[in-house]
């Protein structure tokens, strides 16, 4: 069996470390390198106690990591460095999975252009949880029949990305249906315009950041005398995101150019 060789950037982080355990347990995938600035020079196998026989070198920079022979690069760091990581991986002829949140539409357009130029595949996923994929699907369906909606995204107080990557992806998908209809346009309300949230691709989005809150994503649809709420709640662990990320890794090489959303590789 020819195993897919994987490099994971941000490998010792909350979500990526759980993904690395999933990759280590998979028979068709193999971790060959990692990026982690604070653990550079170490062995990921030892740090995460993966139980593997081979050493997995940890590098400080993407330029060092892509010197290792690999097939797929998984980006799971921070928005300020993510695009550089992705561009470098594409130039090294690697297909890319983007799990980092905080990138904007302009970033994705530049990445799409680079993917076409390098003839590589990129899959950007705001949230790898299967439940969120279903929320996106159901919300798109609802938007065709209930033309007024808003999004609320919840996360712990320490999360700097506002809105979350999940909320951005949902707003982007809903924009393909159309812009949410507003009874009173935001520029005509009495009071601070910020009270109505931020307009993101035609959808009002509200980010709640408080201690004690786990990650959640909610889309609310309204018609006269009725309301539909679709909400996904996540627990405190990163386990819900592993299955979807593994699916993305296994499917990305079958794509062409840049794609956004896990559902693009789901049967």
Automatic annotation (TrEMBL):
Its EC number is 1.17.1.8. It comes from the Bacteria. GO terms for cellular component: cytosol. Keywords: Amino-acid biosynthesis, Diaminopimelate biosynthesis, Lysine biosynthesis, NAD, NADP, Oxidoreductase. InterPro entries: DapB_C (IPR022663), DapB_N (IPR000846), DHDPR_bac (IPR023940), NAD(P)-bd_dom_sf (IPR036291). One of its GO terms (biological process) is diaminopimelate biosynthetic process. One of its GO terms (molecular function) is 4-hydroxy-tetrahydrodipicolinate reductase. Residues 131-257 form the Dihydrodipicolinate reductase C-terminal domain. It holds the Pfam family DapB_C. It catalyses: (S)-2,3,4,5-tetrahydrodipicolinate + NAD(+) + H2O = (2S,4S)-4-hydroxy-2,3,4,5-tetrahydrodipicolinate + NADH + H(+); (S)-2,3,4,5-tetrahydrodipicolinate + NADP(+) + H2O = (2S,4S)-4-hydroxy-2,3,4,5-tetrahydrodipicolinate + NADPH + H(+). Pathway: Amino-acid biosynthesis; L-lysine biosynthesis via DAP pathway; (S)-tetrahydrodipicolinate from L-aspartate: step 4/4. It is an enzyme of class 1 (oxidoreductase). Residues 5-127 form the Dihydrodipicolinate reductase N-terminal domain. Belongs to the DapB family. This is 4-hydroxy-tetrahydrodipicolinate reductase. It comes from Persicobacter diffluens. The lineage of its organism: Bacteria, Pseudomonadati, Bacteroidota, Cytophagia, Cytophagales.
